[in-house]
Amino acid sequence: MAERGTVVRRIQDSTPVDREREVDGLRAFAILGVVFGHWIVTGVYAGVDHWQVDSPLRHMPDYAPVTWLLQPLAVFFLVGGYVAAQSYARTDHYRPWARRRMSRLGRPIMVLLPVWTVGMVLLADFVPGESLYTLGKLVLSPLWFVLVYAGLTALTPLVVRLGRAGPVLAVGTVAAVDVTRFAAGGPAVVGWVNVLAGWLVPYSLGVLWAGPHRGRIERLGGPFLVVGAVGCAGLIRYCGYPVSMVGVPGQAISNLNPPTLAAVAFGLAQCGLALLVRAPLRRVLTRRPTVWAAVALVNLSAMTVFLWHQTAMLTVTSAGIGLGGLLGLGTVPDGLPWIGARIAWMPVFAVVLLVCWAAFHRWEAGGRSKGDSGGSS
């Protein structure tokens, strides 16, 4: 207890008075929400001849609305745009700025890739090829997010110049792509334009939030929430978009891969909610040093947590499969008992993730300035 109190005091004392703690709080919520979401909707079990990936949502489609609580990526891109725009405004030269930010994103990846390359080579003699492919796909799946985030970060100066036209153009692009794909019968490959355009919507809103229109953007939190929620519900009800905001195996259309107009509307609602809760969140993080310390630690290791959370889940799942399958671990996710058991396994996932953090977080920390206690600079 004394040691924990010391850590809390150190973080509290090293935090600048003008630190926007609510921004760090929103980022921590987004990262932990993604981790929890992946852990609860991703089931891996031993099939007839190889390991297979399944989702409880495929077996229980009536619970798809729960995914509205499990997919907070738009909040991360909102905060990312806000932080990048603030940082870019303080620099005179683009290349050094971009190099620093790419380095902070790339350093943790440069650890993940060689560790798992060696791991795959060692496992090749014991794990069938298709099962090895399943493992590799899940472990590397977070990289798509990092690549999109890096791309938008690199485009920050352009997004700043676009100003209020940025989100409008992005929404229009997503809508045009969806019409091309779904109404005009265009090629599915066109949808991948939305990987960048879809996440540009919350990112550009974050850039606007950091600019001269900050007060106006913050006052639009309520309208963003209402318009986004109503728009998303309408697209699902009348235009045939899936209810689930995450991918479901076997589902013809995914709202997330690539993002659809429904996902963009959903993200707009999330951004609105984030803007509405920023003031009370700031008060909580200012008045509760222990909560702030937890948020700061998550932010300092956000990339490490994000990149290694699938490894933690797969490590524990592999043990479950080795034992013949345990409920919620290495068995088909086909009912509520599986969900309950999976939630019960999450502390074990967290312990393994903590081990990964202890081993690899130093590479992420090495890309930060000495006094950065929260990670939003």
Q: What do these coordinates show?
A:
This protein has helices spanning 2-14, 21-41, 56-59, 73-89, 94-123, 129-140, 143-154, 156-162, 165-183, 193-210, 214-219, 221-239, 261-287, 289-300, 302-322, 336-365; strands at 43-46, 51-54. By secondary structure, the chain is an all-alpha fold. The chain has one domain (2-365). β1 (43-46) and β2 (51-54) form a beta hairpin. Residues 369-377 have low confidence and may be disordered.
Topology (SSEs and partners):
Blueprint: H1 2-14, H2 21-41, E1 43-46, E2 51-54, H3 56-59, H4 73-89, H5 94-123, H6 129-140, H7 143-154, H8 156-162, H9 165-183, H10 193-210, H11 214-219, H12 221-239, H13 261-287, H14 289-300, H15 302-322, H16 336-365
Antiparallel strand pairs: 1-2
Helix pairs in contact: 1-14, 2-4, 2-13, 2-14, 2-15, 4-10, 4-13, 5-6, 5-7, 5-15, 5-16, 6-15, 7-10, 9-10, 10-13, 12-13, 13-14, 15-16
Descriptors:
two-stranded antiparallel ribbon, 377 residues, 16 helices, globular, mainly alpha, disordered C terminus
